[in-house]
TrEMBL record:
Keywords: Membrane, Transmembrane, Transmembrane helix. InterPro entries: DUF1189. This is DUF1189 domain-containing protein. Coiled coil: none annotated. It comes from the Bacteria. The chain crosses the membrane at residues 32-53, 159-177, 183-200, 212-230, 236-254.
Length: 268
């Protein structure tokens, strides 16, 4: 019995050696799914580490600013009370944003339209509601819609550390979603693989094409992670295009004899 390829060798081959795909596919669908699970965990750990570090930096800066710059406040029975007699205005001119806390009535809903002539993004917190405006999109949230509850600055500061556990849960959820979504999308990728195989006149069953697709997502998944770290996203069309390229390279590596024999190898 031929020795199974270890994960990291498959990972390497999946990136730089598409001609090895037929050999990996011969290990069966279960091994391909196991590879996908390990890939999800590997990329998930890398992504989670990066986002945890960046989130920790942002979180610490947020806590520092909250303690230093935000006055004592209390939200009770749908109304906000802020210490001080003047509106509190934070401006970020480099990105065209302003954040205003005002329970005095100086700024109102109508003020947002005027502010949008100077800023691209406006957040206005008043005594009874919050308004967020991003260009032409304006959203209003009334405190009374959240029910009758009480929260103040000290309570908020004591609660925020628990958000780190939420980040852990989100990270686990992302890994799970990556794994499940790619399992499902693998069926679609296999259809693309069938089209490629037909054009190249190669014979490979749908099950084998499905396994091949699970290996082919390696490169676009890595690119998607890298782009997310620098604030961009990989378009789905580009993602699929890369998968199809790997289908082409893998299927072209099959000789006529191998493609005829491939129908019987994996199912055994």
């Amino acid at each position: 019995m031929k020795k199974k390829l270890p994960f990291f060798r498959k990972f390497k081959y999946a990136i730089v050696k598409p001609s090895a795909y037929p050999e990996m596919v011969q290990e069966g669908v279960k091994r391909a799914i196991l590879y996908l699970l390990l890939l999800a965990l590997t990329l998930g750990v890398i992504s989670a580490t990066y986002h945890t570090v960046t989130s920790a930096i942002s979180y610490n800066a947020f806590i520092s600013n909250l303690k230093k710059d935000v006055p004592d406040f209390a939200l009770e029975n749908g109304e906000l009370t802020v210490e001080g007699d003047e509106p509190i205005i934070y401006e970020e001119n480099t990105v065209g944003e302003t954040f205003i806390i005002d329970d005095t009535g100086t700024y109102t809903r109508e003020s947002v339209d005027t502010l949008l002539t100077e800023y691209s993004t406006v957040v206005l917190v008043t005594k009874e509601y919050i308004i967020t405006a991003d260009g032409a999109e304006i959203t209003e949230y009334r405190f009374s819609d959240f029910g009758d509850f009480y929260v103040d600055k000290e309570m908020l500061l004591s609660f925020l550390p628990y958000l780190t556990w939420l980040l852990v849960l989100v990270g686990i959820g992302i890994v799970f979603w990556f794994f499940v979504s790619k399992l499902i999308m693998g069926f679609l990728y296999a259809l693309f693989g069938m089209i490629v195989a037909s054009i190249l006149k190669k014979k490979m069953s749908y099950g084998k094409l499905y396994s091949l697709g699970l290996y082919a997502i390696t490169v676009p998944s890595i690119l998607a992670i890298i782009l997310s770290m620098i604030g961009f996203s990989l378009p789905w069309v580009m993602y699929v295009a890369i998968v199809i390229v790997y289908y082409v390279l893998a299927l072209r590596s099959l000789s006529v004899v191998e493609s005829n024999q491939a129908e019987d190898l994996i199912e055994e």
